[in-house]
Design brief:
two-stranded antiparallel ribbon; mainly alpha; 2 strands; about 70 residues; single chain; globular; Arc Repressor Mutant, subunit A; about 50% helix
Amino acid sequence: MANWRERISADPNICHGRVCIKGTRIMVSVILDNLAAGESVEAIMRGYHLEREDIQAALHTVGTTALHAL
């Protein structure tokens, strides 16, 4: 996914600066928590009105963060 950064934002005025799906108040951590709890991508998409690319962008964000943390 080449343009995943276009789907992610971190604005200090939205959700205390936590990383969110751009244009929403849905934090990347909420998506990850749902995936960790066993929710399917489809269920998350329906429940939060997201696109598959939003979920993929959330995963890319965490992957990039983890890579740079090492």
